[in-house]
């Protein structure tokens, strides 16, 4: 027998001088599938902390079993696992599913797009959430921001990139939309499983790769073989997401829904803080232990070519799909206003104080 | 009779086929004093949302009565109101209390200090929280981050500042430590109640003032009379705080404590996002409606003089107080590492893409 909200209500008033309500409380269990392997820093740990928070806040009424990719074996199948109800929740990134649902592309990060805080402002106050709902609701999925890495670095290169010519036939591990952009300017984007990245770079199977940033790059060791570390252009604020089976979420009592939403938002915030902290500490280690690392930015000519390719691809997407057009225009409009403010605030502060 | 955790535990097992615990639940009421007036955008609204969240998450077991400064009449007395137990909680900013407890100065924002995310990383992962606890625990107060404004602007000036000479005897509304810094280079900092700021500037009682940034400056109207708007140096990431009477917090059940901590962290995150959004929208309005606004940065000569004065003042503080020394050194060490990362991530991205 499924007990849905025990109806037994007993007033303590007869026993105590203060009126107190006694509620029989059902306990709930949710299963969460995450894209990440067990123990992955920053990502798995964010999800584990989220599950602990929910259990504590609900005083044990709601527990969440977290299954890593080691268990469910479908790291990039979390969308389907949650849609079908095999799992109640997921933790993944939206752009992994662009092959299945093209408009999921826009809700992680975009090349030359918004930084984490600009994107958060767009999502919560600029219409972003409503557009993301339009993409996911036909699949009976609810989404919630799941944690930001901050600006991702442009990657590790064995040779310096001085012009667009240097990109011709350059074999680079860079997945997703950014790979399409690079292909359009003449590079050869490839995707390689994380476990094979170091060896591929070492054996010259690839010439370059991007991963995340100092937060997660240090342990990968790429700096030992590809000393040119480029500043970012392709993932200026990658936000992961929580997925929820809509029917399952709606079946929960309202207080547990609110607890879940609060805990997910905290997880999102905390991951961004933890990523910043890890990058700070790891970058200091890398600078100290590997003084040969060369930080570079792509020359303006290269960035202009990438931006042009990026804008052309977006135009094509917008021409093919009215919802894509709506999303692209909403992002472009908000981003231009947000960037105008960022340039007089964060950028202005950093620019004028960096050489004092 | 005070009912402290109703002890009546009844198992539903006898009634239903599923084991369910019945807990008699006490309800709790907390009183919160905020520094802000009723209806103040961004600040009062952050606290109201926090109180609503707590009530929903606790299913009504915990309610928070928010008293604005209009009610308790002590906007800058929240520290004492919570320490004495007249209120259980507060929402205010740490640096308002530097006259009473000098080391509270360091936990809002510091001139030439960390940005919001750098400071969050320091607070949560770099020892900041432990140092803040050292300052507040002797007063039986717990503190929690309470929301960031982002980089505050350097203020509105009627005349352009071209050199340190232009600062001599300049009457500027700028409170706190930044005022001390300005005084040391020859300006005359004054403090004026918010309601009198516009008139003071209009009637030449002051030559310049700083308030927050586009988020809250637009409604004040300063741009109509002082067109030079300077980028920030003195408050690169102002974080408000929640204060809690320690005994009161510890008397609450653990699940409600966790709910409170989660809701406070959400409030902190959300205020930063809302401030970014408000600044984005308001700055776009100001640019459109007041094309005469002139954005400027202080010349390097001026910033160097301010930085030198700032460092001298910090040296004096550190020499006078071992805990101040510990805090200043912890911030300086973490900030230098965090900034090295910020410069290759956020700054690198903004710098290389701003002219594409």
Automatic annotation (TrEMBL), chains A, B:
The lineage of its organism: Bacteria, Pseudomonadati, Pseudomonadota, Gammaproteobacteria, Alteromonadales. Residues 1-24 form the signal peptide. Keywords: Metal-binding, Signal. This is ABC transporter substrate-binding protein. Na(+) binds at residue 211. PANTHER family: EXTRACYTOPLASMIC SOLUTE RECEPTOR PROTEIN, PTHR33376. Pfam families: DctP (PF03480). Substrate binds at residues 152, 173, 210, 235. InterPro entries: DctP_fam, SBP_TakP-like, TRAP_DctP_sf. GO terms for molecular function: metal ion binding. It comes from the Bacteria. One of its GO terms (biological process) is transmembrane transport. One of its GO terms (cellular component) is tripartite ATP-independent periplasmic transporter complex.
């Amino acid at each position: 027998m499924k007990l849905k909200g025990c109806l037994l209500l007993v007033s303590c008033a007869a026993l105590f001088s203060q009126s107190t309500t006694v509620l029989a409380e059902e306990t709930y269990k949710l299963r969460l599938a995450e894209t990440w392997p067990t123990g992955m820093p920053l990502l798995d740990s964010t999800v584990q902390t989220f599950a602990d928070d929910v259990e504590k806040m609900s005083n044990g009424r709601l527990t969440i079993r977290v299954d890593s990719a080691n268990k469910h074996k479908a790291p990039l199948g979390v969308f389907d696992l949650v849609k079908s109800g095999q799992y109640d929740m997921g933790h993944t990134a939206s752009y992994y599913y662009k092959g299945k649902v093209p408009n999921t592309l826009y809700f992680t990060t975009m090349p030359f797009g918004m930084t984490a805080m600009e994107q958060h402002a767009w999502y919560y106050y600029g219409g972003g959430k409503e557009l993301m709902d339009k993409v996911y609701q036909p699949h009976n999925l609810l989404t919630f921001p799941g944690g930001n890495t901050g600006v991702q670095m442009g990657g590790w290169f064995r040779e310096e990139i001085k012009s667009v010519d240097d990109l011709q036939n350059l074999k680079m591990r860079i997945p997703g939309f950014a790979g399409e952009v690079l292909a359009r300017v003449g590079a050869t984007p490839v995707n390689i499983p994380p476990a094979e990245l170091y060896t591929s770079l070492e054996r010259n199977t690839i010439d370059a790769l991007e991963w995340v940033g100092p937060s997660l790059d240090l342990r990968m060791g790429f700096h030992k073989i590809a000393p040119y570390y480029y500043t970012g252009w392709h993932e200026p604020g990658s936000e992961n997401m929580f997925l929820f089976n809509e029917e399952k979420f709606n079946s929960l009592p309202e207080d547990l829904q609110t607890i879940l939403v609060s805990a997910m938002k905290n997880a999102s915030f905390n991951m961004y803080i933890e990523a910043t902290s890890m990058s700070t500490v790891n970058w200091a280690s890398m600078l100290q232990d590997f003084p040969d690392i060369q930080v570079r930015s792509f020359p303006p000519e290269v960035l202009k070519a990438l931006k042009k390719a990026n804008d052309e691809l977006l135009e094509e997407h917008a021409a093919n799909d009215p919802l894509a057009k709506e999303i692209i225009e909403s992002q472009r409009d908000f981003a231009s206003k947000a960037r105008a403010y960022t340039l007089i605030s964060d950028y202005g502060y950093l620019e004028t104080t960096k050489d004092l």
